[in-house]
Amino acid sequence: MMQCLQFLVEPAKNITAKLKESRKQKKNEKREPLDESQLFISRLAKDLSRVCQHSEVLEHISSFEDVWPSLTCRSVILEWASLLESKKRPQQTDGWPENSEWKDLALSSEQDLESAKRVIVTWTKDLRAQPEHSVWPGEAVVVVLDDLESHWRRGNMASLLSAMELFFFTLLYQGLDKETIPQQWLMWKQRSQKIGAVPYIPHTVWDWICEAGVEVTLDVDTANPDLLISVDEKRMRCGFERKDVPNYHQRFDGWWCAVGMDGFASGRHYWEVEVGEMDWRLGVAKESGLRKGFKSLNTNTGYLTLRLERGTELKALTVPFTALPPHLIPRKVGVYLDYDQGQLSFYDVDNRSHIYTYNEGFDEKLFPLFGTVEIVKDLVIRSPGQRSHCLCTGMCLWG
């Protein structure tokens, strides 16, 4: 019986291998000639792979199996050169930009691009002097790399950019605690690229965010009189009649908002919110922020928020406001506040991806902020789980 099965299995394996090879050949035939930026990234991947242990994932890039768009390659080269330069002179703020969006970086001049390449080439010369596979990235990084490669193979990630970037970050900051490198990498990405920095957050890093989960309830004494608040103070929506309530100084009487019962003045905090499809706002309000009338709730008035208008316009209420791409519009939002690091980040919980990050030094208490004008669908504050659900196809590799 086993021999019969083997007789069937072996030809099937051969057919599968031939089909795979055929698809790869057709893909190569259709591929446009690679430009200098794409070739530069491929060579850099090979250099990183030579030095690092557990770097097989980079072979997909160095062998051109994973080729990034030319504009992405240009952006990466400019951003990584910026990181190298800022590490050499951390006290200076001139020179390479530290907080530029990739779109702006990609449109830099050819002269800037060539200068950036020279910075990286100088660094790789020192890198090549190191023995082969002499750098162990650490167990935490290896787990993240396996997660990223698995998602890429299943088509859930467009490229292995995050994996290569993690290797680059690991080599650049070899003095860091290896167990914290994935978290440090995420914080750097959100600081340097505020919009959609990480299209997929690896599950161990997501768990680290969720570990900061806090119970948040609405402070009914701050709620606009038009809002209906549930008994458990975790749901709200607009009603049809304005309630007769005391006009406390902390109550919103213009915008349809309320803040959380407890504010934060230190530490890490994370909460999740199910939002409507048409109009909502989320974020934090500074204790000194004005709450009366219809003055804009933006960074100038003490608010760091994300806002959806008319179901299609997602924006960060900076001054002027920052328009965000429609594909980033979430249905369940994770809000992560690292008070001591001065970061407030928003995530799409369903996709486990980054939306937007505010970076500034905090010096007063911050209160979770919630706003909605929807009369049918509740805005709901959810308690985040202690661990995310791993997306392994079979038995979970990480427990």
What does this structure look like?
It holds the Pfam family SPRY. This is B30.2/SPRY domain-containing protein. Residues 196-388 form the B30.2/SPRY domain. With 399 residues, the protein is of the alpha+beta class. Helix content is 35%, strand content 17%. It contains ten helices and 13 strands. It has helices spanning 2-30, 36-51, 59-62, 70-88, 102-106, 110-128, 139-153, 161-172, 181-192, 203-210, and strands at residues 227-229, 235-238, 257-259, 268-274, 280-286, 303-309, 313-316, 322-324, 332-338, 343-348, 353-359, 366-372, 379-382. It has a seven-stranded antiparallel sheet with strand order 1-2-13-4-9-10-11, with helices on one face. A six-stranded antiparallel sheet has the order 3-12-5-6-7-8, with no helix packed on it. A hairpin with a 3-residue loop joins strand 6 and strand 7 (313-316). Helix 4 crosses helix 6. It is elongated, with a radius of gyration of 24 Å. The chain starts with a helix and ends in a 17-residue tail after the last strand. The relative contact order is 0.11.
Stretches with pLDDT under 50, minimum 5 residues: 90-103, 386-399
Principal-axis shape equals elongated
Widest β-sheet, arrangement of strands: 1-2-13-4-9-10-11
Q: Major β-sheet, in short?
A: 7 strands, antiparallel
Mean pLDDT: 87
- Count of individual helical segments: 10
| N/C terminus separation | 37 Å
Helix content: 25-40%
| Topology pattern, helix = H, strand = E | HHHHHHHHHHEEEEEEEEEEEEE
Class inferred from helices and paired strands: alpha+beta
| Strand content bin | 15-25%
How many strand units? 13
Radius of gyration: 24 Å
